[in-house]
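lol forgot to send this yesterday, sorry. struct tokens for the thing we talked abt
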């Protein structure tokens, strides 16, 4: 059974690297994909690769070596990057929904508003927002005394399991984490849902049935990702005391947004996209120059 789990995790990680790496390569090399949506999508793909790489190689190594240990500072580093990529994802999802809102509801103004310079600034802001949202919590966690236990009940270094083995008063850290979920993620969900609501109203007013079906299928696939992501994160982190939660349940739900979502993101966002399909055909159809 352990061998089956090990192989499954390895194949999922490999699929994540291949799918998201292909998106980044296409957006970087194909001039036809030099558009705001694909720029933000490449950021999301980079985030997915970073997010899974934060813990999956270590997880695979632990399975192979039967050594479930991690050094203290490695654990803190894993925790930091895990939440850096995780929080940044919500900013990027919001930017993608904003871009889709402008493209569908205000097509004539879209190119004038979402210029390459604006997209770059928004992307940098998303990454800096993720950094500053988590850095203070990580510093506070690093300064707690750890003398209760050295066993973390999780397959990666999460806030709740780490605080469970920490000594001292961790209430301020938990309050900050709870406020982060409520303010940042709830506001992200609000803007994302509002954008897609306006998009839905615009789609219903389209005279062409084929255009309606195409727009509906695209938005529906995006909303599936959003629902899985926000639902699982709310279940795990939207509680005042995460260190007293049921970690066995949390581990099962965490698989959704730590493994499943990063693997399927590139396929869900591009499977019905003709521009991406054309880009793949152009890449496959290029001739290899003679040496």
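and heres what i got for the seq, position by position
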């Amino acid at each position: 059974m352990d061998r089956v789990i090990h192989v499954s995790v390895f194949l999922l990680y490999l699929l994540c690297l291949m799918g998201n790496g292909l998106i980044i390569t296409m957006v970087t090399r194909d001039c036809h994909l030099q558009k705001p949506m694909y720029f933000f999508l490449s950021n999301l793909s980079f985030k997915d690769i970073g997010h899974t790489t934060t813990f999956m190689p270590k997880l695979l190594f632990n399975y192979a070596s039967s050594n479930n240990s991690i050094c203290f500072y490695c654990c803190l580093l894993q925790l930091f990057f895990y939440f850096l990529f995780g929080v940044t994802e919500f900013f990027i999802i919001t930017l993608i929904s904003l871009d889709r809102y402008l493209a569908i509801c205000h097509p004539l103004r879209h190119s004038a508003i979402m210029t390459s310079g604006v997209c770059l600034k928004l992307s940098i802001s998303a990454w800096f927002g993720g950094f500053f949202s988590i850095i203070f919590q990580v510093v506070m966690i690093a300064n707690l005394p750890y003398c209760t236990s050295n066993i973390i009940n999780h397959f990666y270094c999460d806030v709740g399991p780490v605080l469970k083995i920490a000594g001292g008063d961790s209430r301020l850290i938990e309050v900050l984490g709870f406020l982060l979920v409520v303010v940042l993620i709830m506001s992200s969900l609000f803007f994302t849902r509002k954008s897609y609501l306006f998009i839905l109203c615009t789609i219903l007013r389209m005279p062409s049935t084929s255009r309606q079906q195409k727009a509906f299928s695209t938005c529906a696939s995006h909303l599936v990702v959003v629902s899985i992501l926000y639902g699982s994160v709310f279940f795990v982190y939207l509680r005042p005391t995460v260190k007293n939660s049921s970690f066995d349940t949390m581990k099962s739900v965490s698989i959704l947004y730590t493994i499943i979502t990063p693997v399927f993101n590139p396929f869900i966002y591009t499977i019905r996209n003709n521009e991406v399909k054309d880009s793949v055909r152009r890449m496959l159809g290029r001739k290899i120059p003679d040496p």
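The longest helix spans residues 72-105. anyway ping me if u want another try
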